[in-house]
Amino acid sequence: MVNKSVPIQRDNSTESNLDFRLVGQSRWPTFSIIRDAFLNPLHLNSLSLRAELAPMFAVFAFALMLFGITAPREVALEDDGLFLMNLYSFGVGHPPGYPLYTLLGTPFFHLLPDFLPPAYKGHMFSGFVGAIACVAIYLIVAQLVRQRICAVAAGMAYAASEAFWSQAIIAEVYTLNAAVYFIIMAMCLRYGAYGTGQSIAKHRMLYALIAFTYGLGLSNHWPLIGLGSLGLLLLVISQWRNLLRRLPLGFLCLAAGLLPYGWLVLRSFSDSLITFYGPIDSISELFFYVTRGGYVGVDEQSGVGLSEKLKFINFFAGELGRQITLLGIVIAILGWVAMLRSVAHCGLAIALGIAWFMTGPLMIGLLDFQAEFIWFSAFRVYHLLCYGITAIMFGYGLAWIGDRAKRWLGKFKFQYTAVAAIMLAVLCGSVALHWQQNNRSDYTWARDLAMFKLSLVEPNASLFTFDDLDLPVGYLHMVEKVRPDLEVFNDQGLVFTNRLFDPFFHEDARKQVLKEYVSQSEPRPIFYHTHRTDFFKTPEQGSDFLGFWRRVNRDNNSDRIVLSESLRIWVENNITEGSNIDRWTRQQAQGVVATLISAIYQASLSGYELSPEWLAVIEKAYATNPLTHLYLLWNIAAIDNGITRETARSELRWIDSLFEQQDKYIFDNESWTTLLFLKSQILRRYPNLADGAPGQAYEATLLEALEYTNHIISLQNITSYYRGLSRHDDVLKLYDSIFPDISTAPVVIRQLYDLVQKEQQEGKILAPVIQFN
What we know:
- This protein is mostly helical.
- It is 64% helix and 3% strand.
- It contains 37 helices and six strands.
- It has a six-stranded mixed sheet, covered by helices on one side.
- The longest helix has 28 residues, at 200-227.
């Protein structure tokens, strides 16, 4: 029979930090214990607003101060520029739209005083709601344990965790998502603790408030809220009769919480500066928008298998260990075990464990990301809810340790001493470990790059942006009103409301519109991204390569190179940028320099004469910037006799050193494959430089390259090498392992497969092969 006893009230005596004898016998749960735990109301402490104000304020102040001190004052990378433009203009963000973020963040942004930098105001909205999330963590733990210091420690530990902290100092949606989720969890705990003798009206009101807040959560980041929903449901499962009886009320309140999506549709027709896709004028378009239909290729990348999943599991484990320090993780594990062994709280432990799993490891199975830096960076921020649940377990574990300290040592003071010492160790350790990574108070790299790019554009020009690195350019122009003489577009029809065409136009139609715009806008200067020449170039007009932009050449249809002295100085100053900035900016900074210098070097190979100063810059970049070295080595290796024997020896040493260091923040899978392919080309040209048999080193290098990605050239070369040794069976086995269905392989691979089969049948070589003497 279900026990309807009144939940245990807070005992303000100093008898015990967390008396497990009060909340139930401590033992490993059986089926009947788990069943009763889910069917009986939760055992919680009642909270007095007056008593909780001081610790809540302490948590909030600590978090907000930490975020406020370390937040960048200027625009950052990733989606920061886009969300800042969104907050400034009350706009419509990228799918799924995040309307709650905009509805709450825009008033916050504009209410802050104007003497604060605009970017900082947007960053502080993330910090503000992040501090609220930490207070919600406090309230959850305070309902579970008797000593407030443990709840304070949990809230502060979450604030100082690496990933949550990193998202609380830039314009992003994840801290708001965490705040909503943990507020819902705190309310679910109260709802699940309902027993006889309590107000039915208040219980019904709490039900309505939970449903409404849940709808608001879905209006911000529905995928993450959705993943954590089963854990929330298990917290209130003891009230299943009331849940079913009040379903109509729940659906009504949930629908009210989803109203921000109605605002999203209406706002998409406005003249706001930012409407990501433009007007949403049908249910199907809204469905496409909210379900992130345009990102299917991102969330479900091809070629992802078990090895990639294992790498993400390893990455997740490493990230988890970094959040609240290893000591904090150990205490969180102890806390979860203690919760599981508590007869009254074992159901709560299972609910939190399921929520932890679904907002953490489960996503590894749901998302098909390639195991490389860019996707690790995207993936890491999805786990903030998982890390928050870890902080809750940490607070519970602290309470358990305090309780043990008092019982074992027999003195009450040891309880506080143990808890306070561990709390300080974890908090100080976490802040110290993550300070350099997250202290971005003097960060200006993205703004400096955007300002320089804008300085290259002539007055009264049309500027067509393309990729994420152009978002700070849009922010400076739209929000800070830098270069108001320009008209800024996106050449895909995205983001800006002044689009020239619908973003769903076919690519050929987009090209036609852009080329017509170029022809009709004369004499207005036209600047565009360097990789988008085919979108703007016409038979009558060429382009001028300026480094970061191309400019339409209206003098003739030739392609010209115009390298300014300011560009050379910028490159020289940024060659080794990245030692004191975050990982993402470091990777982007080195990539920008490498791409730029590679383009200039290729121009020199085509006959453009570089000045001695430019040659010196290229030489310096080659020696100090690994990506630049890789890109230029690729160009050098393509030239006959471009690599001498002595150079080849040093390049082999350089490639081997990179694999020993394994700098995953700079190289992606394609880069690692390219490095190995270059090594194989050097070994093929100078086989005597290999350790052991020349052919064996060549074979091992190409096979290693295939572990990163199925580079067609690597496959072609290893196939040719095997055929020269009459190892046709090895070729076929290799192809079958990579392409279980050979019909899905690229055309050139299918042709090679057929050739190998034919040679195997006829017993002779039918095409040239690679041989080593």
